[in-house]
Amino acid sequence: MNEFTRKMKPSLSADKVHAPRKKSRAAVVMALILPAVIFAFVMVCFRIHYTTQIEKLNQKAVRLDTEIEQVRYNIQNVQSRKDALSTLPYIRKQIARFNLPLEPRQPSQLSYLRSDRAVSDHQSRSIYTNENKIAKVQ
């Protein structure tokens, strides 16, 4: 090569060829290990966050379960109280206590509703039983 071509194309000249660069270890660490460490840190943070959310929801579920049990207990108490107050002996005691002058019902007080639907045998027996008659207090 002559001097003229050397000045025009310096990169093609044989005396100026450089050896390929070696990547430094820091670049390899930054390219491979650092993203893996960041990913692991993010995964640990998400795991901690979701674990705390699960614990909060479990505590809320336990509170709701105890509240449901309390409501069921109250319903059972009210039902037993209602049953106790609906018994005929209790009603008779209250009639006597308040001196209520109850008399047997008169036929003119009764009215019947007719419907197009047929009343089943079970319903017809349960409507007209002796429990629905008013007791006469002596």
Counted by DSSP, the helix tally is: 4
Instruction: Give me the strand/helix succession.
Output: HHHH
What's the pLDDT, averaged over the residues? 79
Q: Could you say which overall geometry the principal axes of the C-alpha atoms support? A: rod-shaped
Biggest β-sheet description = none
Relative helix content: 55-70%
Q: What is the CA-CA span between the terminal residues?
A: 142 Å
How many beta strands in the DSSP annotation? 0
Gyration radius over CA: 47 Å
By helix and strand content, what is the structural category? mainly alpha
Poorly predicted runs: 124-138
Strand fraction band?
Answer: under 5%
Report what the structure shows.
The relative contact order is 0.05. The protein has about 140 residues and is an all-alpha fold. The chain contains four helices and no strands. It starts with a helix and ends in an 11-residue tail after the last helix.
